[in-house]
Prior knowledge:
Blueprint: E1 8-14, H1 22-35, E2 40-46, H2 58-61, E3 65-66, E4 72-73, H3 76-84, E5 93-95, H4 96-109, H5 119-133, E6 142-147, H6 157-168, E7 175-182, E8 185-186, E9 191-192, H7 195-207, E10 213-218, H8 225-235, E11 242-246, H9 254-260, H10 263-271, H11 282-292, E12 296-304, H12 314-327, E13 329-337, H13 346-353, E14 358-361, H14 370-382, E15 387-390, H15 392-404, E16 412-413, E17 423-427, E18 442-450, H16 455-460, E19 464-471, E20 473-475, H17 480-485, E21 488-494, E22 499-505, E23 511-514, H18 529-545
Parallel strand pairs: 1-6, 1-7, 2-5, 2-6, 7-10, 10-11, 12-13, 12-14, 14-15, 15-23, 16-17
Antiparallel strand pairs: 3-4, 8-9, 17-20, 18-19, 18-21, 21-22, 22-23
Amino acid sequence: MGISENTKFIFVTGGVISGLGKGISAASVAYLLKESGLRVTIQKFDPYLNVDPGTMSPFQHGEVYVTEDGTETDLDLGHYERFLDQNMSRHNTCTSGQIYNSVIEKERKGDYLGATVQVIPHITNAIQEKITRILENNNYDVVITEVGGTVGDIEGLPFLEAIRQFELSLEPGQYVNIHVTYMPFIKTSGEIKTKPTQHSVNKLREIGIYPDIILCRTESPMMDTPTREKIALFCNVRRESVLELYDAPTIYEVPLVLHRQQFLNVIQKYLKISLPSEVNTEILRDIVYRIKNPSDYVNIAVVGKYTGLADAYKSICESFVHAGAENDVKVNILWVEAENLESSSPEHVINLLKDAHGILVPGGFGDRGIEGKISAVKFARENKIPLLGICLGLQVSVIEFARNVANLHKANSTEFDPNTSYPVINLMKEQKDVHKKGGTMRLGTYDCRLKPHTLVHRAYENEMIAERHRHRYEVNNEYINELEKHGMVFSGINPTLNLVETLEIKDHPWFVAVQFHPELKSRATKAHPLFREFIKASYQFKKRENI
C-alpha cells in the first residue's frame, strides 16, 4: 500500500539483555506523542516461532494478554493499552510463527509462481507488509514498532533486516530508530559502564540500522554529562539524544522521566514535525503522586499457580496499582502458592492467609493447586473476607460452594475429574469437538447482563457490560437452581449463550467471582470497577477487623 509522507514510523529495539522494559519505553514514547495531539498506535513483533503465546507456559513468557477481538498476545500489549487508553487488536501483534506460516501457505498455493522461497525477500517482504497493514483502516500519524528479543539474537534477524529495507523506502525525516540498552553499575569500582551499550549499538549498525536515540537503562539516576558525551561519541548520536531511563518507583513515571529530559524536542527534529512547546502531563503527575503517596495500605493474598513469576499476573498487578491509587492505599501483594494450601490443616491455611485483608483467586489451567485454591475460597467465605475470583477463580468458587454449602459432596469440574458425580463446571458445548489447543478457546469480548441491586451492578453502574474472556469451561446450568437455593447469586448472565458470567454469595460483605478477565480493561487513568470496589471492600475489612 502507498504510505503517506505524513505518516511517521518509530522502531524500538533492545540490546545487551532481555527484560529491559522496551514495552514500557515504547508505551511511554507513545503516551507523550499522543498527549502532543498525534494519533499514535504501537505494534509488537516477537521473533519466536509460536504463532502466538497462547500455548506457552506463564513461566516461559508471563501472562497471555487478550485483546477485544480475542487475539492472544504478548503482555506488552497490556502496557500499550494502559498507557494509551486505547484498545489493541490482532493488527498490533506479529510473530515469526505467523510470518512463516503465511509465507508457507502462499507457497503451497503456488502464489510464488515456482520461485525459490527464501528469507530474503519473501519473509522480509511479509514483515514489511505487516508493518503497514495497521494503516489500512486507520489514519495514524505515528506507528511505533517494538521488536522483541535482543539485538544479536538469530531469530530476530529477519525482523531487523525487514526494518532496514523498509526504511530505505521512506523519506528522510519519516522514521526514527530508538535503541534501549543497559548500563551496569559496578559497585566495587563505583563506575557506570558504557561498553555493553557500545557493543550493542555496533551490533545493530552491522545489521544496517543506525540508532538515532539511545535510552540507557540504569538502576538509579547516575548518568552525568561526561558519560552522555562518551556514549554519543562512540555510538555516533547527538548528546541530547542519549537519555537515561532509571528504575522509577512506578512505571507510570517513565513518561515523565522522558519528558523532563526534553524527549519531545529531540524526536521532533528527527521526524521533522512540530510539537507543542508544552504538553499537559498533569493527569499523569497526579496519578504518580497518588501511587507514591498513599494514606494507608491493604494486604491482598493472590492464591495462584504461577506465583514464582509476577509477570504471569502482570495485568492483575497493574490493576491493583490503579485501584489502590483511586482508594488512596498501597496494595501489598501476598503471593500464596496454591499448592501450599493443599492437604493442609486449617491452622496452616490460617497461618498463610491471616494477614490478608482480601483474597484474589486468579485464572489458570490444569489440576495442579486446585484444592489449594478451593481452600482459599472456603477461608474467605467462612471468615467474611472480601474475595475476587477471576476465570478459574469463579469455577473453584462454585466447586467449593457446591461441596461445602449445597451438600454436593465431591462436586468438581470435568477438567479435573471427568467422572465426577456432580459436574458443576463442564466443558462448553462448542468446545466438545475442539482438539487443537492454539487459539480455540472462548476468546475476546462478550456481553453480560447484570442483575439490579447486586455488587457487580453497583460497581459498574450499568446493566449491560462487555468483558474479555479466555476459557473452555463454564458453570453447568443444570446446577444453577440447586446452588441458588443455598444462597449463591448468579448476578451476571451472557444473554446470547445463557452462560454464567458473574456470581456472588448472600450474607457476605463482598464475594464476587467472574468468568471473564477484568484486569485486561483496567487503565492507569481509570481503575476497573471490580478492582476498585474489591480494594475498597478489603480496606473496609481491614479497618473493621483492625488487622
